[in-house]
DNA sequence: CACTAGATTTTCT
DNA sequence: GAAAATCTAGTGG
């Protein structure tokens, strides 16, 4: 599996966000502890002109990472307890990062369950805080690590998404700036943090968590 | 299954 | 002291 190189991240932030869906995030802190996951949801955060971006707080805050070199990690601590994994991504001279919000586990299920507890695979990494916990990512350890280095935490190539399965929506959880379509999700995945709005009534969902098998009833 | 409320701690004013 | 890119448990249908 090929690590993504610097030039991948040196493009407009929304483009990188869109292209990251269907690729892999990999973390192997120690031999045999490898976790691989397929990214199914991302969000783009731009410079100070974007009201939803932490860049509005200025370079002297923890958001100063948004000014860093593309390909580095920016880990934001939300509500004091949840770690959120971003990758700095922008053309030269610009500012921005991509938040990795959700993924499907591909390898290392046992390692992930040890961190998150046993639950359905699609519920292990279906939100930004859960994703970081599942991967074992913390701000203390991973702030500023280089995602293009194929050791430890990095981003790698993946199967991508079928055309038409990748949809753009408004970003989630923001007090401002949720209007622009800067969130990208694979709508066929059961592991997204929130299902995308359905365009029409006849979209054939492959599977959703609500379509899960009903509990069998006990016969007395 | 849908919705609501409460938790919890770091960072910045 | 207030706010924050969220999560989970709890309630009701």
Polypeptide structure, described:
With 220 residues, this protein is α+β, with helices and mostly antiparallel strands. It has five helices and eight strands, in the order H-H-E-E-E-E-E-H-H-H-E-E-E. Strands 1, 2, 3, 4, 5, 6, 7 and 8 form an eight-stranded antiparallel beta sheet that branches. Strand 3 and strand 4 (82-88) form a beta hairpin. The radius of gyration is 17 Å and the shape is globular. Residues 213-220 have low confidence and may be disordered. The structure holds a DNA duplex (13 and 13 nucleotides).
Rg over CA atoms: 17 Å
Count of helical segments? 5
- Low-pLDDT residue spans: 213-220
* Main beta-sheet strand count, sense and barrel state: 8 strands, antiparallel
Order of helical and strand elements: HHEEEEEHHHEEE
User: What would you call the structural class?
Assistant: alpha+beta
What topology emerges from the helices and strands here?
Layout: H1 6-9, H2 13-20, E1 24-28, E2 35-45, E3 73-78, E4 82-88, E5 97-107, H3 109-116, H4 128-135, H5 139-142, E6 152-156, E7 166-169, E8 183-186
Antiparallel strand pairs: 1-2, 1-6, 2-5, 2-8, 3-4, 4-5, 7-8
This protein binds a DNA duplex (13 and 13 nucleotides) through residues 43, 45, 52-54, 57, 60-62, 76-82, 84, 86, 99, 101, 127-130, 171-175, 193, 210.
Summarize, please.
With 220 residues, this protein is of the alpha+beta class. The protein has helices at residues 6-9, 13-20, 109-116, 128-135, 139-142, and strands spanning 24-28, 35-45, 73-78, 82-88, 97-107, 152-156, 166-169, 183-186.
């Amino acid at each position: 599996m090929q690590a993504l190189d610097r030039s991948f991240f040196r493009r407009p932030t929304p483009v990188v966000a869109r292209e990251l869906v269907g690729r892999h995030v990999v973390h192997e802190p120690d031999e045999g502890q490898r976790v691989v996951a397929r990214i199914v949801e991302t969000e783009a955060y731009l410079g100070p002109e974007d009201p939803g971006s932490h860049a509005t707080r200025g370079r002297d805050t923890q958001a100063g990472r948004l000014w860093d070199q593309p390909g580095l990690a920016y880990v934001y601590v939300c509500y004091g307890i949840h770690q959120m994994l971003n990758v700095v991504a922008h053309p030269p001279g610009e500012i921005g990062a991509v938040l990795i919000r959700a993924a499907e586990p591909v390898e290392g299920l046992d390692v992930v369950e040890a961190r998150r507890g046993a639950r359905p695979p699609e519920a292990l990494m279906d939100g930004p805080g859960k994703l970081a916990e599942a991967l074992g990512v913390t701000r203390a350890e991973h702030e500023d690590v280089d995602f293009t280095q194929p050791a430890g935490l990095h981003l790698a190539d993946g199967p991508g998404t079928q055309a038409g399965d990748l949809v753009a929506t408004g970003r989630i959880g923001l007090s401002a700036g949720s209007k622009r379509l800067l969130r990208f999700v694979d709508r066929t995945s059961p592991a997204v943090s929130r299902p995308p709005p359905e365009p029409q009534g006849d979209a054939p969902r492959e599977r959703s968590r609500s379509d899960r098998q009903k509990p069998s009833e006990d016969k007395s």
